[in-house]
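Lecture notes, unit on protein representations.

Consider one protein chain, 399 amino acids long.
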Amino acid sequence: MQTTCIVGGGPAGIMLGLLLARAGLPVTVLEKHKDFFRDFRGDTIHPSTLELMYELGLLDKLLEIRHTQVERVAAIVGGQRFEIGDLTHLPTHAKFVALMPQWDLLNFLSAEAARYPGFTLRLGWEATGLLEDNGVVTGVRANTPDGPKEIHADLTVGCDGRHAVSREAARLPLAEEGVPIDVLWFRLARQASDPESGLGYVNYGRLIVLINRIDYFQTAYIIAKGGFDQIQQDGLVKFHASIERVIPFLAGRTAEIDSWDKVKLLSVQINHLERWSRPGLLCIGDAAHAMSPVGGIGINIAVQDAVAAANLLTQPLRASTLTSEHLEQVQQYREGAVEKTQRVQIFAHRILNRVLRNPGPVKPPLLLRIVTSLPGAQRLLARFVGMGLQPQHVQTKQA
């Protein structure tokens, strides 16, 4: 039986750790932070991921955590509401997107993983490099609360995000796509009488997304890449007015953003590794392919990677027969769906770029009116957003 060290305690890392430990394998997850509480992460758990929770017998327990549900995805364009996707027709047990802070999801999954004796989570352990022997990765170097340590493993999995130490230390080549947008991330008060939030509010050269966190809206304000400096120079008053102009029911609430310290810039990237692995090392999730926030699918792509990796690697890890070919199979299996999803996101960026260049009132395009009036089109879009191009299923058995 071979050991695994996972670098990064995000959705991919914790999910993979859970699945390997559930199968009776020894696995250690390193997370550089002392907890999971960071606000700059996705909140959307899509039906494909919820279906995995059902397959693991965890869906009902997960949904006991405070959350909201979106059954129909809508956009408010030029003040008019358009139903874009109807999730209620999906072939899943949970026919909705669950909006839940990512720290709640990670706390839940790590607690479930801790039920298995082979699972170890090391919080506050920051990977600084890789251990190697004759070109084979044999583990991780890490700074820990007790000083530098070495963690030896037969397999190291990089799940440490778009700035992955694992990827950089392994010198894996990265291909970048040009992205024309960034995101400003902040909170605004929510009232019980507020309308249901849509996928986004589009008007006057702005796209603003409201994520319902029950007590407040987590808000994503889309800007042209590199445009934050100019927005800051224009001042908070103008920034407040731009929000209220697009979403009138927020009038009076934007004043709570009384400092730019309350607005965080999220730099949007789309990229992918040309090779996801080398002997002894596999990268998945954002470490292998950073996704745009378009569609809110980042968590779900990462989780699908983790499930695919567990399905393909559990048996050779158990039999101590893991080879580089097994690691390459993960990329061969997953990269087509990832690449096609990124192509859709890049196409969406082109549309967003046109929106951001038009400062006047938006007139909903005829194509949008036609597409959203066709039930078949709504179901197709819902399937892409809710299920993705290659939904995974848990094939590993509990030990």
